[in-house]
Amino acid sequence: MDVCKIEPGIYHYTAIDDCSRFKILHTYQRRTTTNSIDFLDRVLEQFVYLIQGIQTDRGREFFAYCFQEKLREYCIKFRPIKPRSSHLNGKVERSQQTGLQEFYRTADLKDPALNDRLAEWQFYYNYQAPQFITRQNASPSRSREISRLPILG
Question: Does some domain include residue 85?
């Protein structure tokens, strides 16, 4: 899970499954603990299987007491990566780069329905994009077989 600043007032949250590369995306006006908790709720609602752990960078929004309490409430393990180790968060970093190149380059950032357009692009990425064909072998049931501890990057 990570946050990327697109421009002032637009922060792109990303969660991506380590095995299937299934991802959840949403934008917020600020990078706050409240928005991080809301995004976590979205992730839990949209993922098709139980999340056992979350890996993040060391952003303050993920270390806040409220966010940590929410993780404990859902029995989700928290795994922060070491400082200056962005290579450990590579999947989510590459996903954000793809979003910048494929979605935000053509999106109207002033559009009030930006999150609706982002949800459409997320659906395309997860179910229709060419890489989906290779990810079909990494379905949720296959992901559970591969790894008993799915970690979100």
Answer: yes
Q: What's the CA dihedral at 114, 116, 122, 127 to 10 degrees? A: -150
Per-residue pLDDT tens over the stretch 63-122:
999 999 999 999 999 998 887 676 677 777 787 888 888 888 888 999 999 999 999 988
User: Does the model's pTM come out above 0.85?
Assistant: no
pLDDT in tens, 28-40: 999 999 999 999 9
**Number of structural domains found in the chain:** 1
For the domain that residue 55 is a member of, what is the CATH number? 3.30.420.10
Residue 10 and residue 29 in contact, taking contact as beta carbons nearer than 8 Å:
yes
Sheet-wide strand order for 10-16: 2-7, 10-16, 23-28
The domain containing residue 45 runs over which residues? 2-128
Order of strands across the sheet with 77-80?
77-80, 53-56, 151-152
